[in-house]
Write a structure and sequence with these properties.
This protein has about 200 residues and is of the alpha+beta class. The protein folds into two domains: about 5-105, Winged helix-like DNA-binding domain superfamily/Winged helix DNA-binding domain (Arc Repressor Mutant, subunit A, Orthogonal Bundle), CATH 1.10.10.10; about 120-200, no CATH class. It is about 40% helix and about 10% strand. It has helices spanning about 15, 25-35, 45-55, 60-70, 90-100, 120-130, 170-185, 185-200; strands at about 75-80, 85-90, 135, 155, 160-165, 170.
Amino acid sequence: MLKKFINAETTIANKILLDGDLSDTEVRVYFVIKMLSYKDGYCWATNDQLSHILNKTLGAIKMALSRLKKKKYIVVNTVKSRTPIRKIFTMQAWAELSYTNQIPQDCLHFDKDLPKQDFTFKEFKNFIVKNYPKAIFTLAQGNPLKYRSNIQFMITKTGYIHNNFTQKLLPKEEAFKMWQHLYDNRDFVIQTFVKFLKTGT
């Protein structure tokens, strides 16, 4: 299974490599997720397969995945009616797919109770602030606001946008551009926020 990867190279963000809060096992699990995502854009491996690849116990693998999800380094997408049932994306890959409106249809969990997506800008903003305060999101590389894809933002209860890296609110002009960007991608934004509230990832 791994022969085709032996002579290849896998790179990860320095932020993950230098994160002292991650164990060596968690970093290695992330490396393997990134490696196995090369062809399809996501990691298809089961916990048993990851356990075999890394020679780690199933408990260690489950704990590593849980920690990587909690720290917003990966997105775990599970659909029982699909093969594979689980697809693991790096957060950077998921953000880029979201920004370019290319999240695969089998990864979208449309809720029948969600309102129609034909909001005006003001209705959209009010809807997000009311229903998804404290939702965390990232932007893909090349976004109009020129933010790096690993920077996390949060919607506040009062409608401001908080930069979790600088620990400051965005200036008014910049916040408006961000809201416009979210509005332009509103279908995917709402689906992402729904998923965040349900799973924390």
